[in-house]
């Protein structure tokens, strides 16, 4: 499971690292565009985005 929590400040770092999974909504907050259907080959990028998030808003389980 990959979730963006309420700590998101909308900096866009995750969308730069992993645009296939993350996008910003109309409020400028990041969200996971694929839900629970993230392909295994994108998980390294998802983890990189989580590690690069300045407010630790991306939760990867």
Automatic annotation (TrEMBL):
Pfam families: Fer4_13. GO terms for molecular function: electron transfer activity; iron ion binding; iron-sulfur cluster binding. This is Ferredoxin. InterPro entries: 3Fe4S_ferredoxin, 4Fe4S_Fe-S-bd, 4Fe4S_Fe_S_CS, Fe-S_cluster_ET. Ferredoxins are iron-sulfur proteins that transfer electrons in a wide variety of metabolic reactions. It comes from Intestinibaculum porci. PANTHER family: FERREDOXIN. Residues 1-27 form the 4Fe-4S ferredoxin-type domain. Keywords: Electron transport, Iron, Iron-sulfur, Metal-binding, Transport.
């Amino acid at each position: 499971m990959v979730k963006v929590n309420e700590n998101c400040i909308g900096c866009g770092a995750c969308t730069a690292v992993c645009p296939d999974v993350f996008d910003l909504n109309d409020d400028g907050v990041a969200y996971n565009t694929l839900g629970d259907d993230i392909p295994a080959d994108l998980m390294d990028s998802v983890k990189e985005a989580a590690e690069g998030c300045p407010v630790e808003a991306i939760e990867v389980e």
